[in-house]
User: What shape does this take?
Amino acid sequence: MEIEDRLPGMIESFLFIVGDEGLTVKQLISLTECKESEVAEAIDVLRISYEQRKASGITLKQFGGALRLVTKTEFAEDIKRLLENPSPKSMTQASLEVLAIIAYRQPVTRVEIDDLRGVKSEGPVNTLIAKGLIMEKGRSEGSGRAILYGTTDLFLDRFGLESLDGLPPLSQEEEGETIETDLFMTQFQEAFAIENDGGGNLS
Assistant: This one.
C-alpha cells in the first residue's frame, strides 16, 4: 500500500493514541515523514470521512493548533449522562488503577498513565474527574504542554487522609522506572481495604 493511501489511517492512529493532548500539523509531518501538503490532504480526507459517516460518534477538530479526535456535539447530552452517572456501587478496576497511579505519581500526564497501564486511560480519567477525585494541575514543560493530573481534597476526604503524606510509602522497587501497575494496585488496595470494605462509597 502506498504511503498516500496509508497516511489518513496513520494520522488517525497517532491521534487516537495521544488522545486529548492532540498533535500539531508540524508534529504529524515529523511523525509521518511526509510533506505538509500530503499531511494536509490526509487530514481533510479524515475530516470529511468522519462528517459523512452518520454512524460515527467522533470527528476531527483543531484546538489551539493541535488536531484532536473528539466526540460530535450531537452526542453531548448522552456523554453527560455517562459522566454524571458512573457505576452506582463502586469504581471500575480501570478507574481504581488510574487513581492509584495518579495518587503516587502526581502530577502526571495521561500519556504517562497510559504507558504504565499499557492501555488508553482517557475514559477512567474522565470518570475520575466527574467524581471529583482528580483534577488538572497545570501543564507539562515538554513538547505539546500535556495536561498534568493530580488528586483533589475530595480524594483525601474519601480515603481518610489529612494530606498526601498519609499515602503508604512505596518500596524502593516500586519507585523505580520499571514499576508495574499491579504494584500500585496492591499497595493501594491493601492500604484502603478498610474504607472500601467498610461501606465507603466511591461512586
About this structure: The chain has ten helices and six strands.
